[in-house]
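Example 230.
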Amino acid sequence: LERGVEGQDLAGRHVVVSAGGTREYLDPVRFLGNRSSGLQGYALARAAVARGARVTLVAANVTLPDPAGVDVVRVETTAQLRDEVVRRAAQADAVVMAAAPADFRPVAASESKIKKASDGSAPPLALEQNPDILAEISADRQRGGQVVVGFAAETGDATGSVLELGQAKLARKGCDLLVVNDVGGGAVFGAEENDVVILGADGTSVDVERGSKTSVAHAIWDQVARRFVM
Ligand code: CTP
Ligand code: CA
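Predicted structure in complex with cytidine-5'-triphosphate:
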């Protein structure tokens, strides 16, 4: 999807995108992590640049090269991601939380490498919850008219279908848009293609046909741009 100057619908806008998966350290060499590749967040950043936006990308443990024309801030933990995103959100017209922040972190990280016990026992792992960045940004809008976007990868379960869980999460987080990904079928992590539904707090629901993460990114910016002009 190439856009000429006439397609610069994000010109003059500053957008913050988070990408990747955070790591929570147990000791200097070990961490709890997740399989987020950062591909969708990077595709969002590139698509926003193509549409004329000034883009800040807060990247957690992503191995992809920096996209051209994007201000990239690298972080590791959910606490660092929170600090960088919250600080930059103050000046942003849109914030898109495409990152997968670890929900839990060890209550205490060991300063030295945890050694194996000779009796065959394993150390206990006490965890506490990390802050919810999306909920915080949504509740504490620092800029009028700011559009806040979250993502949800759902499988559906006994309590509800993928879309029902998505609607409940949209309401719980308080964001404007929630990009719902049905991950019940398997391969999404590191995959080239994606297929999503974009739910709006205003009751809209947009089915995005299966396609590249770039085409999904443009479909998301289409919804953000509509809300800027409304
Ligand atoms: N998110 C966040 N901060 C967290 C956890 C999640 O900002 N500590 C954001 C993600 O970036 C994503 C959205 O919230 O945009 C939904 O993430 P998800 O993991 O689906 O939501 P959770 O509230 O953690 O719920 P679950 O129990 O389903 O993991
Ligand atoms: Ca989570």
